[in-house]
Every structure is written in structure tokens, then in C-alpha cells.
Design a protein that fits this description.
Blueprint: E1 7-9, E2 15-17, H1 18-29, H2 44-61, E3 65-68, H3 71-78, E4 83-89, E5 94-100, H4 102-108, E6 117-120, H5 127-131, E7 136-137, H6 144-154, H7 161-169, H8 173-196, H9 203-216, E8 235-239, E9 277-285, E10 288-297, H10 303-324, H11 329-342, E11 361-363, E12 370-374, E13 387-390, E14 393-396, E15 399-402, E16 405-410, E17 413-416, E18 426-428
Parallel strand pairs: 3-7, 5-6, 10-18
Antiparallel strand pairs: 1-2, 3-4, 4-5, 8-9, 9-10, 11-12, 11-13, 13-16, 14-15, 16-17
Length: 429
């Protein structure tokens, strides 16, 4: 395609031929690769399938179109998270309007093979006229001011948030492979914790060792969350009493963190002999979350702590069994809770009263807190293709203990993605 000759005047009076500059940009984009020069873009076939599925869901639900604007969902549908808005009609017309960077957005969408057009963002005054439809918007996730501005321009009143969330619950084979690859890296993170841990070592030194493995493998440093405040400190390693410190959001384990602004996870508490050290690590491989927990101890745990761990493993097995049968997530919660109460942990399950969390498992994907959840109100099963971190834990003032692995429900039932038996529930230093 012929490009018009455009000149840009830079500081100092330098004049740059944009056509030549664009070629430079394209050359630079060839460096956007994974380890060993792997192409880490989302496959075009994935984008095509996701867009076709969303179009079908929109038509079935009576929506004319969807305007996708959250960064996570931009990545899911277009392969990148540039400053952009993605428009998909129920008839399958797909357009990505980009403020910056146009060339990068096109590259990340598959270049010339992209399943959607990649266009410069039009003037807001003409946006409605340009798109020629009335889209539904992600009112359930967008900041009010941002959403209101766009809604007023395109006359949007319908919400497509739940349509998107429901679609993302079911993972493709490619997505499951990303999580399996992430689980391999996560295993090495736990091995790093084992290698450097012991009496006198601080929590933050342990998480630094795990972090080094994760970062070297491509973790970008940002754990995406759906629920406000939209952030999670990724390394939750808590020793002894630090395991009894509550979290600022709905989580079983809090920890001190290094300071009040970063008030979750690992702090400067040092490991003491014979106390429980809970290691809850997340790794994101190409955006996809895997979540797992194991216990460590410098010496040996008391019979009381060992019994508590055995009980949490039993609760985990109860939850997995219910989900394996295709029964509702809410039923898995009720049966898991009933077993925990029968075993004497009612006041300490997933936190200490009154700071208890009311769940036993959370779905994961591109975000740490996806749906459904093993909790009251989720009166539906984990769908086939759904992925969930199941994590029963008990918390006391002198420590916390529990188990966690990430699972997928496939045609044969529940199957572990993360370590399962590869790392014991308790590792001794």
C-alpha cells in the first residue's frame, strides 16, 4: 500500500521522513521476542477464535457490538495492550482504534495476518459516526469517568462485562499450555526457596530467590487482578507469627510486607527453628497465572501443626471431589467448610475471626481472581476448561498452614496443572 510522504519536525529543527521512520520502527519490533528468539505473540488462530466466540455471544445476548477497553481484555482479544479501544460487532467486524503505538499494536496483533484492522483513533467528536453502531461497554470494570466519557459519545447503555468474563472462564488448549509452562517455572521457584532457606534467613530473602527465577523466565512484574484495588504483591512467604497478620484484601494470608505501603507478603521477619513457613508463590507465563502453596520448616513441625496441614489436605480433596463430579462451586464451599468445622477449624479457616475470607478456591487465568469462586453464591460448576487455584488454609496468631495447587477441569474431571506431588507438602531445611 502506498503511504503518503509525511515529514515530522523534531526539536532542534531536525526534519524526519515518517515513511523512513516507520520502517525503522518495524525493524525494532522484530526484537520483541521471547527467550532464544521465540515468537511470544498470541497466535493469530487464538485471536480469531476468541473474536468469533465473542461475536457469537454478543449476537445470542442481543448486543449489537462490544467496545473492549480494559488492558487485560485488549491483550486477550487483540494480542497487545496498547492505548486503544477494540470494537467487535455481533456480525464479526473487528477494528482496533489505537492512540499509541499503532505500529506495535499491528505487530502484536499478527502483522499482516491480523484478524482485525488496526487504525488510528479518530477524533472523539466523530467516533460514533465512524463506528456506525451502538456498542455495549465494560461498565463493570472501567473507571466511572472514563466509561461515562465514551458512553456519552456512542450512546452506550448496555454492559458486556459478564459476557467477557464468562468467555474467559473457558481456557483453550493453547492457554492451558501456557499455564503448564508456567508451572514448570514455578517448580523451579520453590526449589530456589528450598536452596536458600533456613533458620535466620528473612522472608524477603526467600522471595527474592523465587523472584529471580520468575523474572529471568519472563515475568513482567505485574499481577493482574479484577477486583479493586487491582494489585497483589506476588510473593507471600510468611514465617511464624507473620503468618497470622491479616491482609488488606480478601485473602487468607496477609503477612507484614516490607512496609505499610506494601503491606502484604514477605517482610523482614527471620525464620526461627520449628515454626511453619508458608510459601505461596504466583508465576505469570506470558500473562497466565499459576498459583501454589507449600510449607517449609527449619527443623520439624510440631504434631499439632502437622495435623492441621493433614486436615487442610483433606479439605482440599473434598473440594476437588465435588468439582470433579461437576457439582456447583457453592456446594464445594459448603462441603469443604463443613469438613473444616468438623475437624475443629471453623474459627481459623482462611483467616482468624473476624478477618476470615469466605472462599476455598479462586479461578485463575490472565487475572488472579477470575470467576467462578468456591464460595457461596456461585451456584454453578467449574466449567470444562475452567482453571482454579484450590487453597484451604488455617491461620493462628503464631502462624499459618495450608495447601494449594492450580487445577483444570477437563472431560475426565479435575486435573492438577501445578506441582501436585512433585514437591511435598512439607520441606525441611
Amino acid at each position: 500500500m502506498h503511504r503518503p510522504l509525511v515529514f515530522i519536525t523534531l526539536r532542534g529543527g531536525v526534519v524526519l521522513n515518517y515513511r523512513r521512520y516507520e520502517h525503522i520502527m518495524e525493524d525494532e519490533l522484530s526484537t520483541l521476542v521471547g527467550p532464544e528468539d521465540e515468537d511470544w505473540r498470541v497466535p493469530v488462530s487464538e485471536l480469531e477464535s476468541r473474536q468469533a466466540d465473542l461475536a457469537s455471544r454478543l449476537k445470542e445476548s442481543g448486543h449489537e457490538a462490544a467496545l473492549i477497553q480494559t488492558p487485560v481484555d485488549l491483550y486477550y482479544y487483540t494480542g497487545g495492550r496498547q492505548n486503544a479501544s477494540f470494537l467487535l460487532t455481533a456480525e464479526g467486524e473487528a477494528r482496533l482504534f489505537v492512540r499509541r503505538s499503532l505500529s506495535r499494536a499491528k505487530h502484536e496483533s499478527g502483522g499482516d495476518d491480523s484478524p482485525h484492522t488496526v487504525e488510528s483513533f479518530p477524533r472523539m467528536a466523530t467516533f460514533a459516526e465512524d463506528i456506525g453502531c451502538t456498542p455495549s461497554m465494560q461498565f463493570g470494570e472501567l473507571p466511572h469517568g472514563f466509561a461515562a466519557r465514551f458512553a456519552s459519545k456512542v450512546n452506550a447503555t448496555k454492559d458486556c462485562t459478564q459476557i467477557v468474563h464468562s468467555q474467559r472462564e473457558i481456557k483453550s488448549e493453547w492457554e492451558l499450555q501456557m499455564m503448564a509452562d508456567g508451572a514448570d517455572i514455578q517448580l523451579a521457584m520453590f526449589e530456589a526457596v528450598e536452596a536458600v532457606g533456613g533458620e535466620g534467613v528473612s522472608e524477603i530473602e526467600l522471595v527474592a530467590a523465587a523472584e529471580a527465577v520468575s523474572r529471568a523466565a519472563g515475568f513482567g512484574g505485574n499481577v493482574q487482578m479484577r477486583r479493586f484495588p487491582l494489585q497483589c504483591d506476588r510473593g507471600v512467604i510468611v514465617a511464624g507469627r507473620a503468618g497470622g497478620v491479616p491482609s488488606f484484601f480478601d485473602s487468607a494470608i496477609g503477612g507484614t510486607g516490607p512496609h505499610p505501603m506494601s503491606s502484604m507478603g514477605s517482610g523482614f521477619t527471620k525464620i526461627k527453628a520449628n515454626e511453619p513457613v508458608l510459601v505461596d508463590l504466583v508465576h505469570l507465563h506470558r500473562g497466565y497465572v499459576v498459583d501454589a502453596t507449600r510449607m517449609y520448616v527449619a527443623g520439624s513441625l510440631s504434631p499439632q501443626w502437622e495435623e492441621r496441614l493433614e486436615d487442610m489436605v483433606a479439605v482440599k480433596e473434598e473440594v476437588v471431589d465435588v468439582l470433579d463430579q461437576g457439582l456447583d462451586c457453592s456446594q464445594a464451599w459448603r462441603q469443604g467448610l463443613a469438613l473444616a468445622e468438623e475437624l475443629g477449624h471453623g474459627d481459623n479457616l482462611m483467616g482468624m475471626a473476624p478477618d476470615q475470607s469466605r472462599f476455598l478456591g479462586h479461578s485463575v487465568g490472565l487475572q488472579l481472581d477470575e470467576s467462578p469462586v468456591v464460595a457461596e453464591g456461585f451456584d454453578r460448576p467449574l466449567p470444562i476448561g475452567g482453571t482454579m487455584a484450590i487453597e484451604p488454609k488455617v491461620v493462628h496468631s503464631n502462624g499459618s498452614i495450608g495447601s494449594e495447587d492450580t487445577w483444570v477441569r477437563d472431560e475426565d474431571g479435575m486435573r492438577p496443572i501445578t506441582m501436585d506431588g512433585a514437591v511435598p507438602w512439607i520441606t525441611q531445611w
